Amino acid sequence: MPAPGRTSSAEIVAAGRRIVAATGLESLTMQAVATQVGVRAPSLYKRVKGRDELIRLVVEATIDELEERLASVGNLVDSDPAAALADLARELRGFAHENPSGFRLIFGGVPLESRPDVVVYARSAAPLIEATTRLVGAEHALDAARTVTAWANGFLTMELAGEFQLGGDVDRAFEWGLTRVIAAVAAE
């Protein structure tokens, strides 16, 4: 192997994300990342304490990407809250299709010792909480956000796994379900 080079934390995280995208979380090792960034594995420990921290950093970067995408969804403050909520769910679906391994990292659970701080999750959920607050009020905003997220997560997990085997239009099914979940959440 060549003499150890220099690498940055950003390069390490990017390599980790590429590994997870290509071969799954189980393939994310310090050695695999070191190989990708062109250093010896012990050199990584100058920037990352170990695999648990590496996983946490990869998950955080993935959540940050989702946060940026959700924040980019139109003008949530001035739009109809039900339409804003639907747009957020559609953006989540787009993210899941473009980055299935990242979606699974965020929603499939990682070991407790590798989970990001709750503040990281809260930042990414802010647009959703804003939309549900406007839709149902502050008292039930978190309940509504959890309901919509749980439905979307279930639908997307099945869709990504290719589990909708009975035919029909999956896009139409997503829209049909989304409309009904939002209507149910908004009903008093």
UniProtKB/TrEMBL annotation:
Protein name: TetR/AcrR family transcriptional regulator
A single MF term (Gene Ontology): DNA-binding transcription factor activity
DNA-binding region: 29-48
HTH tetR-type domain segment(s): 6-66
UniProtKB keywords: DNA-binding, Transcription, Transcription regulation
The keyword Mitochondrion belongs to this UniProt entry's keyword annotation: no
Domain of life: Bacteria
InterPro entries: Homeodomain-like_sf, HTH-type_TetR-like_transc_reg, HTH_TetR, MT1864/Rv1816-like_C, Tet_transcr_reg_TetR-rel_C_sf
Lineage: Bacteria, Bacillati, Actinomycetota, Actinomycetes, Micrococcales
